[in-house]
Amino acid sequence: MWEAIAANRRRSRLLLALMALLLAALGGAIGMSIDPDPATGGVFGVLAALAVFGVMTLVSLTAGEAILLKSMGARKLETPAEARRLFNVVEEMTLAAGLPRRPDVYVLDTDSLNAFAVGRNPERAAVAVTIGLLRKLNRDELQGVVAHEIGHVRNLDIRFLTLAAVMMGSIALISDVFLRAFLHGGRHTSRRGRDSRDGGNQAQAIMLLVALALAILAPLCAQLLYFACSRRREYLADASAARFTRFPEGLASALEKISGHAGGRLLGKQNRAVAPMFIVNPLRAMGGGGLFATHPPTDRRIAILRAMAGGAGFAEYERAWRERAGERGALFGERTRAEAGERVPRRAAAPAEEQRDAVARAREALRHRRGGSGWETIACRCGGHVSLSPTFSAERVECPRCHRTIRVTD
Amino acid sequence: MGGALIALLVIGGLVLLVILWFIATYNGLVRLRNQVKEAWAQIDVQLKRRHDLIPNLVETVKGYAGHERQTLEEVMRARAAAVSAHGVGEQAQAESQLSGALGRLLMVVEQYPDLKANQNFLALQEELTSTENKIGFSRQFYNEQVMQYNTRIQQIPANLVAGMFQFREEAFFELEDKSERAVPQVKF
């Protein structure tokens, strides 16, 4: 487990370094296409590109979570009473993963089925699930999904993905600005070029071509790098979920329900960069494959989880992954596999959910939805609940079930 | 002269390296041991939670199924034994007894539809299910930590440091009954 994190860190640094190099090259080339002297134009370009990245990183690290949660319309649950089952499941997975603190719990008021995690480090993380998910999934499935998200937190995926997304965004932004400037205001640079010496002119023309090529290619390369990494991290989070819950079928069955559900899209197209943080790609209902996919195909993830054949450890997951994804190589380091390997007992299959439990869960989710729009729910001593509209102003109300009078302040 | 000085420096450097390695290994072992302790504290919290839930459960059940005295008393006895148990091994045994008694009580409850419809009881059911799960998951994490720690203090060369400073192997938290090895699933 710890080694998996260390390997993640190493690979992340390599990837970030590659992207930084791409960013610097882009900045340098653009700078030199304006002023062909490497000492001024080149250095200025690199510095400008890094400055863009620096500012965006600062913003995303200090306010990124808040911005994301806010833009999604996520609502924080303050007390466990608001959604006992969800809170309990998050607490259970916190214990299983050995996180230092329970992540904050958020709900998204939408019927589509999805979940995501945010947070720089395990001490300060948050897990968000949609109300649709609360309604549709039984306890084991919800546990699988939450375990997957907690796996992202535990493996330090979120900070990395945020940094990588910001880097990708910076590259895209700079390329975009440059291409627009070239198309619309190209005359300014070319006039300056004509004024300078012949050699300079030639060098500048070459640099302009290089900069153009980079501006077109760099965003694509950055995306390829980013999405390749994000797909691998999905597998790792799935493996972690299986290990934490000791019950791969929970997550498998949840993924099946999620992918079979024709839900609305959760995000606009511009939000592509945050897509890897969700349990399934929020931009399309069916997980497709391909180099630009943020997630592995959902049916493949399900097949891997189901092929773990009587185990719930990293070793079993890796074997299933090789078999089903047709991959070679290793998902985990040698020591992680040896340490966490064979001796993982598997939980017996859960009994089928009773109708009563299904009703209770749908009710809890629905209560939640009203809570979000200003409705209050109060409990009666008889066990019934009364929902009060936001405009309700009286102090007492009669319980519709046992006709007892309840004080609203209780 | 020069040769002696170089030899002295080399020996001094080697000694320094060994000392640094010693410190690093010792600190690593302390960290692992503390992780084990912390994991144990988590189990303890959950076990206490279960002990606190039981009187409430027994009271609720009594209101509907008062004549199941024997089963109820058995649960309370097992709880008392678990509360006063000390040490990992003893506690594990007492807790698995308690799990068994609780399981029997919940089987008995099946015969009382009124009780099963009671909202307080249903809320208690979710709490109990979750507490059982939490005990299971914190035990799982504790055992992983113990395994990591035990492996580390047995391996060369860390075992030298471990032997010198009395790092002892920690006990796994295992439940007696084989069928209890799976995370207990409380169903009513």
Q: Sketch the topology of chain B as an H/E string, one letter per element.
A: HHHHHH
CATH architecture of chain B: Up-down Bundle
Low-confidence stretches of chain A: 189-196
DSSP strand tally of chain B = 0
Summary keywords:
heterodimer; A: 410 residues; alpha+beta; Zincin-like; four-stranded mixed beta sheet; two-stranded antiparallel sheet; 12 helices; 8 strands; globular; B: 188 residues; mainly alpha; de novo design (two linked rop proteins); 6 helices; 0% strand; rod-shaped
What topology does this entry show?
The complex is a heterodimer of chains A (410) and B (188).
Chain A: H1 2-34, H2 38-72, E1 74-76, H3 84-97, E2 104-108, E3 115-121, E4 124-130, H4 131-136, H5 139-154, H6 157-195, H7 198-245, H8 248-260, H9 298-306, H10 314-325, H11 334-340, H12 355-372, E5 376-379, E6 385-388, E7 396-398, E8 405-407
Parallel strand pairs in A: 2-4
Antiparallel strand pairs in A: 1-2, 3-4, 5-6, 7-8
Helix pairs in contact in A: 1-2, 1-6, 1-7, 2-6, 3-5, 5-7, 5-8, 6-7, 7-8, 7-10, 8-9, 9-10
Chain B: H1 2-65, H2 69-84, H3 88-109, H4 113-117, H5 119-154, H6 158-164
Helix pairs in contact in B: 1-2, 1-5, 2-3
